[in-house]
Amino acid sequence: MTEDFEKINFLTENGSKDINLRLKVDWFAFTVDEAKDFKNGKDFRILDFLGYSLSDFDEVSGKNFYNSGYTLKNFIKIFYNDPSKKITKGSSFTHNYIFTGVGCSNLQGHIKNDWVKLFRDLRDLFNVKFRRIDICLDDWNFPSLISFDYIRRKVEAGHFKSSKRQYHFINDRSTTGDSLGASWYLGSRKTTGKLGHSMLRVYKKAQQMIYAKKQLYALPQEVQLQSLDPNFKEYKWLRWEIEFTKEKAISMIGLIVKFENDGVKNPITKAFFQVLRGMIDFLVPTKDPKTGKIYKSKHQWKSSEKWLSFLNHEDSVELENPAQIYDLGSVHDWILYYVMPTIQMLQKIYESCDLDFYDLMKQLPECDFSKKQESLLLETQGITKDELLVFASHFLNDRGGSH
After folding, report:
1. For position 133, what pLDDT does the model report?
2. Which of 27, 29, 177, 239 has the fewest beta carbons under 10 Å from its own?
3. Pair 117, 89: CB distance under 8 Å
């Protein structure tokens, strides 16, 4: 906790400090021939290979032209064709594996953060076809290195060039007109066919979690600490997310593997920034030194220094380890430093009328858990009593309690 207090002191005295950008795989899907996913009389052997057990999955209805499926807490899904059921015409005899954002975080722990090895193994051992991969870059700086307002100004002024033909903004507002978030899409999901698509989405992630998902508690600690800044008005967390499907997904994963073969230290980061540079370039209207007039062709305009500075952060990007963001320790910290002061205040208010707020809380019905909470429940199934006592001891001692 000493490190956390140092962050708080730094923010209070000096304002925000630079925080390295974080990169993560946020969606991953592939298909595999049934025969490749069957061995020694056992089906779905990729699950065993990845450290999962089919017995932990629940049966669900089919989807995507498959007639049957399994799911693990709705963040890992498998769809397949059960031969005893009616099979949709044109449906393939494959297994379709889907890892949602939380599913990727869970999978990342199983593969020990080595995505490139996973890509190789799935390709070489199982001959899978990659169907989708989303890679996102998170900026937790306060203020953001590139603000959403900067993007909007540049785009609406036409001060950019892109390999994509279309873009659109989406603004989420309450009925009172308050902003609940905003997104910018470059490219389109409507692109169909064998090639698939690549699309960039930039959006205010903190606002999405607070207003759409009601998960203020799940904001990363670096983002939570922004509220201590004297200039704080709203949480800043800008996410740059590129979605690849079908052949574009295969090409992207191939590029990542190639970069590792070439000895690149962070191949996923390298591939992400290479694609990002090709998709968008923010520009500054540039004058012809001979005529003093702005060049008509944007190809002669210079890239924005602010944008180039952002791209130059490539070498310092960290591959995010989701387990370090939302684990039992971080949940305890959230309760200790953000929740308990409010609860204890309410207890004092209720005590003034001879009521017990703690008893009131016990009467509340069990809440629906978020996907991250379901994932943490799953990860802690094997925790021992002694291990929990260690967490409990830290929980009490960090605020001067005893046990």
Report:
1. 98
2. 177
3. no
Burial group, residue 14, by CB count within 10 angstroms (0-12, 13-18, 19+): exposed
Answer yes or no: are the C-beta atoms of 207 and 235 closer than 8 Å: yes
In the chain, the amino acid numbered 345 is M
CA distance 276 to 311: 9
Tracing tokens 């001959």 back to the chain, one arrives at 127
pTM score: 0.80
User: Would you state the pLDDT for residue 191?
Assistant: 64
Q: CB under 8 Å to 80, separation ≥6 — which residues?
A: 34, 62, 66, 68, 69, 94, 95, 96
Confidence of residue 14 (pLDDT cuts 50, 70, 90): very low
Convert the pLDDT of each residue in 125-175 to its tens digit. 999 999 999 999 999 999 999 999 999 999 999 999 999 999 999 998 877
Provide CB contacts within 8 A for 296, sequence distance 6+. none
Counting every residue, how long is the chain?
A: 403
Full 3-state SS string of the chain: CHHHHHHHHHHHHHCCCCCCCEEEEEEEEEEEEHHHHEECCEECHHHHHHCCCHHHCEEEECCCCCCEEEEECCCEEEEECCCCCCCCCCCCCEEEEEECHHHHHHHHHHCCCCHHHHHHHHHHHHCCEEEEEEEEEEECCCCCCCCHHHHHHHHHHCCEEECCCCEEEEEEECCCCCEEEEEEEECCCCCCCCCCCEEEEEEEHHHHHHHHCCCHHHCCHHHHHHHHCCCCCCCCCEEEEEEEEHHHHHHHHHHHHHHHHCCCCCHHHHHHHHHHHHHEEEEECCECCCCCCECCCHHHCEECHHHHHHHHHHHHCEECCHHHHCCHHHHHHHHHHHHHHHHHHHHHHHHCCCCCHHHHHHCCCCCCCCHHHHHHHHHCCCCCHHHHHHHHHHHHHCCCCCC
Given pLDDT bands bounded at 50, 70 and 90, which one contains residue 11? very low
CA-based nearest residue to 168, from 146, 186, 180, 153: 186
pLDDT in tens, 281-332: 999 999 999 999 999 999 999 999 999 999 999 999 988 765 445 566 666 6
